[in-house]
C-alpha cells in the first residue's frame, strides 16, 4: 500500500508538471521544448530561406546576410560552420522568436508569417544540446510529449528511439525514477529520451542542437539510426558537431559569416569547400580516423 501511495504521489506530481507546462502562455525562447501539442497536419514539411537578412538589433552587424537555402520535406540537413556563423539563429527564426529584416522563410511552401504562432510551433520540436530529464519516472518523461499516448505508442517510441535495452536494464523498467534523485541517465540516453518524445509527437520539423560533448560510438550510431527512422514524418535539421551525423545527412549546409559558404554531400564538399575540409579535420573529427576514410 505504501508503495502504491508513493507511486500515486509521483504520478500526481508528473500530471501537475504536465499541466503546468500546458497552461504556460506561448512559450519563451528558454522554454521551446518538446512538450508542445501535436501538429494538426501531419507529414514532413519542406523549408526554404530566401534572401534572409537578420540582425539582433538595428545597431549591430547583420547575423544573416542574404541567407538562402532549401531543405526538401522528409530530408535531413546538417548545419556546420565556425562559432558565430549564425546556425542557432536559423533555428530561432524558424520558430519565429525573431522576424527577419528582409527576405522570406517558408515552411510547407507557406510564409511562416502566415502561420498562427501556436500552429507554427506545434509543427516543430526542438531537442537541445543537453536534453533535460525531469524527476519522475521514465514514463512520466515520455508522457510529457503526449499525455494521452497508449502503451503501444510508448513501446513503439521506446524501440524507435533505441531505448529498449536501457528500459530492460533499469530496475523498474519504464517506472524507474530518473532525473533528480533517480537513476542518472547519460547524455546520449537523455538525448534519446528527447527523440522518443519526438516519435510520440511526430513533429513536421525536428530541430536538433547536437551535444558538443562526445557521445560514445554506440550512442552515436543509435542516434543516427533513430533520426533516420523519423524520415517518413519529419524533416530533421541538426546543428552538427560530429562528423558521423554530418556524413549521414542528406545535405550539409556550411555557414560562414551569416551566409551559405557551400552546400552538398560530405564527399562533394571535401573537394568543393576549403572551409568544410578545415572544419571536418578540426571541429568535427572526434576519432583518429582520417577524414576521407570515414566518407
Ligand atoms: P555557435 O556554434 O557558437 O553556437 P552559431 O553559428 O550558432 O554559433 P549564433 O548563435 O546564431 O551562431 O550567433 C550568431 C551571432 O549572433 C553571434 O555573433 C552571436 O553573438 C549573436 N547572437 C546570438 N544570439 C543573440 C541574441 N539573443 N542577442 C544578440 N546577439 C545574439
Automatic annotation (TrEMBL):
Subcellular locations according to the entry: Cell membrane
Keywords for this protein: ATP-binding, Membrane, Nucleotide-binding, Transmembrane, Transmembrane helix
Chief site of localization: membrane
ABC transporter domain span: 47-282
GO molecular function, one term: ATP binding
Name this polypeptide is given: ABC transporter ATP-binding protein
Amino acid at each position: 500500500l505504501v508503495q502504491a501511495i508513493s507511486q500515486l504521489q509521483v504520478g500526481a506530481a508528473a500530471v501537475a508538471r504536465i499541466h503546468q507546462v500546458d497552461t504556460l502562455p506561448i512559450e519563451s525562447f528558454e522554454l521551446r521544448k518538446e512538450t508542445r501539442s501535436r501538429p494538426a497536419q501531419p507529414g514532413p514539411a519542406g523549408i526554404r530561406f530566401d534572401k534572409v537578412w537578420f540582425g539582433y538589433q538595428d545597431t549591430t552587424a547583420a547575423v544573416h546576410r542574404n541567407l538562402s537555402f532549401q531543405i526538401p520535406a522528409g530530408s535531413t540537413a546538417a548545419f556546420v560552420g565556425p562559432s558565430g556563423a549564425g546556425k542557432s539563429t536559423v533555428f530561432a527564426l524558424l520558430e519565429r522568436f525573431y522576424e527577419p529584416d528582409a527576405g522570406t522563410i517558408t515552411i510547407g511552401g507557406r510564409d511562416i508569417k502566415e502561420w498562427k504562432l501556436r500552429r507554427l510551433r506545434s509543427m516543430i520540436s526542438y531537442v537541445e544540446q543537453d536534453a533535460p530529464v525531469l524527476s519522475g519516472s521514465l514514463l512520466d518523461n515520455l508522457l510529457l510529449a503526449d499525455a494521452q499516448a497508449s502503451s503501444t505508442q510508448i513501446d513503439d517510441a521506446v524501440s524507435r528511439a533505441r531505448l529498449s535495452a536501457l528500459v530492460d536494464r533499469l530496475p523498474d523498467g519504464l517506472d524507474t525514477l530518473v532525473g533528480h534523485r533517480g537513476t542518472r541517465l547519460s547524455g546520449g540516453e537523455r538525448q534519446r529520451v528527447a527523440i522518443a518524445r519526438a516519435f510520440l509527437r511526430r513533429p513536421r520539423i525536428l530541430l536538433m542542437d547536437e551535444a558538443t560533448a562526445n557521445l560514445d560510438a554506440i550512442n552515436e550510431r543509435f542516434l543516427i539510426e533513430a533520426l533516420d527512422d523519423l524520415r517518413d514524418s519529419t524533416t530533421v535539421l541538426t546543428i552538427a558537431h560530429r562528423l558521423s551525423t554530418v556524413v549521414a545527412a542528406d545535405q550539409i549546409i556550411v555557414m560562414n559569416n551569416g551566409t551559405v559558404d557551400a552546400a552538398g554531400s560530405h564527399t562533394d564538399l571535401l573537394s568543393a569547400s576549403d572551409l568544410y575540409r578545415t572544419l571536418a579535420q578540426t571541429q568535427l573529427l572526434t576519432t583518429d580516423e582520417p577524414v576521407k576514410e570515414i566518407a
